[in-house]
Write a structure and sequence with these properties.
The chain is mainly beta and 1052 residues long. The protein is built from seven helices and 76 strands. The N and C termini lie far apart (129 Å). The model is unreliable at 1-33, 147-151, 153-158, 353-359, 677-683 and 900-909 (pLDDT under 50).
Length: 1052
């Protein structure tokens, strides 16, 4: 035990001896170059010559650091506390502290940009353009690495600071971007104990030398002259353009009449904004996606003289002459950086500060414009005004259009108010306005009220509500001879119905400008006896006899009357139009029916024979014979459209090009001809076999008189269709929803086709290029019929602009003629590719990247790009159709290639993935069946791709997938047909039959289409408003009479 103890003591002695030979600094760490004191990098912003930092704050929205000078100042300092030391000083400090240290040998502030003008590039080189721009703004920089040298001036009792002095910052919002660089040196200290007991100190610089690091880079805002800037710009207006901004001239007018009167884009919205309450030369503006261009107009106060012009810098770049304009105190120009903000510096050339004046006037102003992205759901700018004229709606000469420029203000209620003008020809009678806003163009979620705010003779403002006519809400636009203003209020809605009337979304106020004010049409009729009658003609209310003192005068607001003309002694009556004629020279036509309920009207012989004279004018008075079998007379105003054309001798001649109705129709029952008690009864079987509309999808019909379009009184039509068409989609809509049948047949064929009113039906064409389709409409009574014919000719030139195939000299791809874009992979060493397009119609014209293709492949260079787009344009033989296909050629190795679009393979291990190219989900486990994405029901087609914007039928039920591919619910309006459907909110199934929703009854037909107008069901008549709601427990004026409806909606 004692031996072990002695051995242990010996080891301790040896170990102690070894330790004594090691330098005393052995255990101390060498300080790192980035171990820098916080005080070395803490920058301060203050007025030059002062020791007090400027007041600062952090913007809660942008997190920017803002320093504010209330007065207009000349010099600002950005500085650091000077703690620099020389190498000798650091060595001595290490010896004194007997430890290794790291010290700062250099501190530097580097200004990299001022007001978006770049001074120093990212690679550290100087940016000459930016330096010239800063100098042009009147700004200078003075740097110092120690006290003096033109840099920040130390003040009494303040420690020495270094940095940069900025002179001449404009009044307003200045953005300063700078970095702080620190250079450090580490000193390694060690001690060596000599054999004689003395200690040798050794402090040497780190062999790695000095290390320079950028501790941080930041952007601050210096607001110069906050109090001074108030009212220097008296007004800031933004002009926001939706659509083609170039269509407007410098007076905000559109001189092109076609664009000015089109009731759709372009539109201009001018908004005057107030400055940010916390920063007087900063302005905020909401930018919607619909915006195509944005301009500003700054109006300067009287203290600023702009007579000698200005220099303007936008985002650090000097604006060239012509890119902005100066008009008096107004400065205007374009704004382009609408995703974030624009910073504009205006240097006034004529400013001089009077040395004797105590008021300092700025030579330059820095204005910041911030942009806030506006959600499309809050964009209430117009896409289309949706104006319908009550009279002359088919006549383009009778104008009704909305003005192009609006002034936008924010009301105290929080919604925007758009003030503009509307121009209406007095002959239009009334107008209906159902606008499409940007918000509502993709989803039918806005409804409107339309009124006229007019001034009466005393100058008091009154409001006139709209009226329901022909299924639409119409409003008078010229109630007052002094002032009329159309007011359109937008609300949350669905399918035209307001769902939340407590909050206005937006309001349009349109001052009415009446065109052709003295050229309007007004309806008035007079009735007089003929020589064969001893009795005066008398009008009464329907059902009220002369004996009961029911006599009334004709007024245009009353639509139905009883007429007594002296039967049986009299056989005729003189009907005269005595209203005011416009320059359309209106006249009347008279029709008769043998039953009070019949809509099968026959024009009176005298009316038919009222032909135009040599000046194409017709008589306004008709002596019509009334057979005793007639039970009803209908009078309707008409006008003939007349155009000036050249005859065979080149002379101008008047030509009648069409006949159109104008105004309301008026019904006169003839009770003297009633054989018994007869009252109007819409429940009787109708004899109306007329069509209301007849269309061939994509083409226009021409009647036997050469007029374009369909007219119910014209039976024969022709049209020319594409050469390659073998079938056509025909849609026939009957005037009476309850017609017994609509049967179509084709010449040379025994086949017949049952057409459903309002639905598209595909009919085959003859192969010889000429097809006559006969359509027989049989009325509800099963007796009355009407026959229409359409002669269809196939064009001799083809309209096919499709490709059959594309052959490439090399590459991996699959061409699908139905797809507009085809992806192609070639190896990286491929520098060109030969393209051979093959058209379905050999007579079409093809070009590749603008080079016309004949019979030889076209070579396309792929050099210098990993991706090359090749456009193939096909123009049909007749020149009417154009289609463009795009080849996206990628130069990439096959191992890196994955083209889901062409081979449906995926490198993903998951069966469900998102296809970015086709913008849809793919589920490889689904085939024409339901699935889920994000927990929501979706439908995958036979290619396992998500269905979007389409109907699907499964299990005998119909469903609709919306634009996101999710199963839709609620109301759905078909964009193509305008028909309305309802999808069950729980399972998305299309509803049929009766449905009660929000205490209103609706009827959805066997095809799911929401019913509007009359419906005969189980022997009862019902009426549904244009919004689909059944009329219950009220009386309603419909067409030519007043009808009563019970609690169950049935007419009684």
């Amino acid at each position: 035990m004692s031996k072990i103890k002695k051995r242990f003591i010996a080891l301790i002695v040896v170990f102690t001896s070894i330790i004594s030979l090691i330098p005393l600094g052995f255990n101390s760490e060498v300080a790192k170059a980035d171990d820098i004191p916080a005080e070395a990098t803490a920058s301060r912003v203050n007025l030059d010559g002062t020791m007090t930092p400027l007041p600062s704050r952090i913007d809660s929205t942008t997190q920017e650091e803002i320093h504010t000078a209330n007065s207009l100042e000349d010099n600002f300092d950005i500085s650091l506390k000077n703690i620099q030391k020389t190498q000798a000083e650091l060595i001595q400090q290490a010896k004194d502290s007997k430890s290794s240290i790291t010290g700062v040998t250099k501190q530097e502030i580097v200004v990299k940009a001022i007001n978006e003008a770049i001074l120093i590039n990212d690679d550290g080189t100087a940016n000459t353009d930016g330096q010239n721009a800063v100098a042009g703004m009147g700004i200078t920089l003075s740097y110092s690495n120690s006290t003096g040298n033109g840099g920040p001036t130390p003040v009494e009792n303040d420690s020495e600071r270094i940095g940069v002095k900025i002179t001449g910052l404009p009044a307003g919002v200045n953005k300063i971007k700078y970095s702080v660089k620190i250079t450090t040196l580490s000193i390694i200290y060690k001690e060596t104990k000599n054999s004689d007991g003395t200690v040798t100190q050794d402090a040497t610089p780190d062999p790695a030398g000095e290390k320079t690091v950028t501790k941080y880079e930041k952007t601050i805002t210096i607001e110069n002259g906050k109090d001074y800037a108030t009212n220097q710009i008296s007004e800031m207006t933004f002009k926001a353009y939706v659509g083609d901004a170039d269509a407007f001239n410098d007076k905000d007018e559109i001189l092109d009449a076609t664009k000015n009167e089109n009731n759709t884009v372009p539109f201009l919205y001018s908004t005057t904004v107030t400055p940010d309450p916390n920063m007087k030369l900063r302005y905020n503006f909401d930018v919607p996606d619909s915006l195509s261009a944005l301009k500003y107009i700054m109006t300067f106060g009287d203290m600023i003289n702009l007579d000698k012009g200005v220099e303007l810098y936008k985002n650090g770049i000097r604006a060239v002459d012509g890119s902005f304009s100066l008009n008096g105190q107004k400065l205007s120009g374009d704004l382009s950086n609408r995703s974030k903000s624009d910073l504009i510096v205006i240097k006034v050339n004529s400013v001089t500060n009077d040395s004797s004046s105590t008021v300092k006037i700025a030579k330059a102003y820095a204005v910041e414009i911030r942009y806030n992205k506006l959600d499309a759901e809050k964009d209430y700018s117009l896409k289309n005004a949706g104006i319908t004229k009550l009279d002359f709606n088919d006549d383009d000469d009778v104008k009704a259009y909305i003005g192009k420029a609006f002034t936008v203000t924010k009301t105290t209620s929080g919604f925007s108010e758009y003030k503009g003008k509307i121009y209406v020809d007095s002959r239009a009678g009334m107008i209906s306005i159902n606008p499409t806003l940007i918000r509502s163009q993709s989803s039918n979620n806005v409804a409107y009220t339309v009124t006229n705010n007019y001034k009466d003779s005393s100058g008091k403002t009154k409001t006139e509500q709209s009226q329901l006519k022909n299924g639409k809400q119409y409003v008078n636009f010229d109630t007052s001879s002094d002032y009329n203003q159309i007011q359109i209020d937008a609300y949350e809605g669905k399918d035209g119905n307001i769902t939340n009337s407590s909050q206005i979304l937006a309001r349009y106020l349109l001052d009415v400008v009446v065109i052709n004010n003295d050229n309007n049409f007004t309806m008035n009729l007079e009735f007089s006896k003929t020589t064969d009658s001893n009795s005066d003609v008398v009008l009464t209310q329907p059902g009220v006899t002369k004996a009961n003192n029911g006599e009334v005068s004709f007024t245009s607001s009353r639509r139905s009357y009883d007429l007594y003309y002296g039967s049986p002694n009299a056989n005729s009556v003189i009907v005269s139009f005595t209203g005011h004629q416009s320059d359309k020279h209106e006249y009347i036509k008279v029709f008769f029916a043998d039953d009070v309920n019949s809509t099968n009207l026959e024009e009176a012989t005298e009316s038919v024979n009222n032909l135009p004279d040599k000046d194409l004018l017709r008589s306004t008075s008709l002596n019509v014979n009334i057979a005793h079998s007639r039970k009803k007379m209908v009078v309707q105003a008409y006008y003939d459209k007349v155009e000036i054309k050249k005859d065979e001798n080149g002379q101008d001649v008047k030509v009648k090009t069409g006949t159109y109705t104008v105004g309301d129709s008026y019904v006169f029952y003839l009770p003297e001809n009633f054989t018994g008690e007869v009252t109007p009864d819409p429940g009787a079987s109708s004899s109306n076999a007329s069509l209301n509309s007849l269309k061939i999808s994509g083409y226009t019909l021409t009647d036997s008189d050469g007029n374009s379009g369909f007219s119910s009184d014209k039976l024969d039509y022709t049209t020319t269709v594409a050469k390659e068409d073998t079938t056509e989609k025909i849609t026939a809509i009957a005037q009476d929803d309850n017609v017994k049948s609509i049967i179509a047949s084709i010449n040379g064929s025994d086949a017949t086709y049952d057409l459903t009113s309002g639905e598209s039906n595909e009919i085959p064409l003859n192969t010889n290029g000429n097809t006559t389709i006969t359509i027989v409409v049989t009325a509800q009574d099963g007796k009355t019929s009407k026959t229409y014919s359409i002669v269809i000719k196939n064009n001799s030139k083809g309209s096919n602009a499709n490709l059959k195939n594309v052959i490439l000299s090399q590459g991996d791809y699959t061409f699908d003629p139905k797809e507009d874009i085809t992806k192609v992979r070639v190896d990286q060493n491929v520098s060109k590719i030969n393209v051979t397009p093959i058209a379905e119609d050999s007579k079409s014209t093809i070009s590749v990247n603008g080079e016309e293709y004949s019979d030889s492949a076209i070579s396309v260079s792929l050099k210098g790009a990993q991706k090359t787009e090749i456009d193939i344009e096909v123009i049909s033989e007749d020149g009417k159709e154009t289609k463009t296909y795009t080849l996206e050629v990628y130069r990439v190795d096959s191992s890196d290639w994955n083209n889901d679009d062409n081979n449906n393979d995926s490198s993903s291990d998951d069966d469900q993935f998102y296809d970015d190219y086709n913008d849809c989900w793919v589920d490889l486990t689904k085939y024409d069946e339901w699935g889920t994405v994000n927990g929501k029901p979706v439908y995958f087609d036979k290619k396992s791709r998500q269905v979007k914007n389409a109907w699907v039928s499964t299990g005998g039920k119909y469903y609709y997938l919306n634009n996101l591919g999710y199963r839709a619910s609620g109301w759905k309006v078909d964009d193509k047909t305008g028909q309305t459907y309802y999808l069950d909110p729980t399972n998305g199934e299309m509803r049929k039959g009766w449905m009660n929703l929000n205490n209103s009854w609706y009827y959805l037909g066997l095809n799911g289409v929401m019913k509007k107008g009359w419906l005969n069901l189980n022997g009862k008549w019902y009426y549904f408003t244009p919004n689909g709601q059944m009329v219950v427990n009220q009386s309603m004026y419909i067409d030519d009479g007043v009808y009563k409806f019970g609690q169950d909606g049935a007419m009684y």
